[in-house]
Amino acid sequence: xxxxxxxxxxxxxxxxxxxxxxxxxxxxxxxxxxxxxxxxxxxxxxxxxxxxxxxxxxxxxxxxxxxxxxxxxxxxxxxxxxxxxxxxxxxxxxxxxxxxxxxxxxxxxxxxxxxxxxxxxxxxxxxxxxxxxxxxxxxxxxxxxxxxxxxxxxxxxxxxxxxxxxxxxxxxxxxxxxxxxxxxxxxxxxxxxxxxxxxxxxxxxxxxxxxxxxxxxxxxxxxxxxxxxxxxxxxxxxxxxxxxxxxxxxxxxxxxxxxxxxxxxxxxxxxxxxxxxxxxxxxxxxxxxxxxxxxxxxxxxxxxxxxxxxxxxxxxxxxxxxxxxxxxxxxxxxxxxxxxxxxxxxxxxxxxxxxxxxxxxxxxxxxxxxxxxxxxxxxxxxxxxxxxxxxxxxxxxxxxxxxxxxxxxxxxxxxxxxxxxxxxxxxxxxxxxxxxxxxxxxxxxxxxxxxxxxxxxxxxxxxxxxxxxxxxxxx
Length: 475
Ligand code: SF4
Description:
Elements: H1 9-13, E1 38-41, E2 54-57, E3 73-76, H2 90-97, H3 105-115, H4 127-136, E4 143-148, H5 157-164, H6 166-180, E5 184-190, H7 194-210, E6 217-223, H8 232-239, E7 263-267, H9 268-279, E8 293-299, E9 304-311, H10 322-325, E10 329-331, E11 337-339, H11 351-356, E12 365-368, H12 375-388, H13 395-398, H14 400-412, H15 417-427, H16 435-449, H17 451-458
Parallel strand pairs: 2-6, 3-9, 4-5, 4-7, 5-6, 8-12
Antiparallel strand pairs: 1-3, 8-9, 10-11, 10-12
Helix pairs in contact: 3-4, 5-6, 6-9, 12-14, 12-16, 14-15, 15-16
């Protein structure tokens, strides 16, 4: 799992042993803003309408670590593309989008390549590359996985899609399954949001009644409420009946995923984008270089997360309020990067624009810092949370992240910045998954984005009006 020997191993080794051995996967088996506001609480329930039952559930405890939880309420705003309608029923969906065409693999690949569609789960990997690899892989069996689990606690876009446009997500998955010649599709939701699975069960019952998917078999799973439960290898482990934790993947999921077979595993929004492209019915928003939209989960000032759909190329000054633009913003969630106060004012919601500025959208989480809050203390709070989310399998992660969190707390109390930097560099690239890298990126980004605060803390001062507030997204 470690890609190179840790230079400062003694520092980490002195902290004791990892809780458990990391188990590698068996190599042999590997092969809108505007319009009326809709409000929906993260509660509620629908009866199982059609006898469909979940296929799997993570064995981890259902109680999530909500020490830095961001909100309990969800506002979903109509948008220009995926959220043109927020009515979840199949009748409204079919009326708006029409019937589902059946494309072969070559046709679907050509369409995806022309669109430049990138995954919406965080990494932004080109979907065409993933699809082509699975289509070209040897063997006959293939799998399709829709990941709606959103391990990132500040993200709510997949929940919003599931509650308001489940058929768009299911259409996208059905298109891929047909192109791959597979009947079975796995859909993974978050265990802490049972309403998502209930919404899917209702949608699947409608589809079965209307014969929208032919003989498609849908298998529902619940991912554990932990940060790394939605990581790709953790999701395939869950589906294969093993603990919902990341493992070292020697081959990409596209070639060796579920049951060691070629698997297209992508985020729910990616499938929804694909379905919207295929179904058409409206001009594709965005720019010629970046067609399409992004779903953003924006932490609001009253503990509410608003989910907005924004066309690529939209200026941030039309997405965020003046107050939010004037504050530091954590972009991309807890593994993301800090934009200093005012930095987004001249930028747009664009992969190219943000990358050039050293920023990234990840899975679309946008966390403006509450006015007067110390961004370093907020980062320290998130770092402590992330340290607790380690699966405890890789020593540099299990031992290194708590050490990094402790060192950051110590620095903020007048300790050594050098120790923070040293520990940060020690954990990068040393986990089976990207959790240590993402945590190190967050800390490094804070130290780079807020030099005045770093200097103040080095002198034993804190410039914030609210230094005690240690979380982002909470007001
Ligand atoms: S890097 Fe951390 S979270 Fe990822 S598998 Fe290893 S111990 Fe688990």
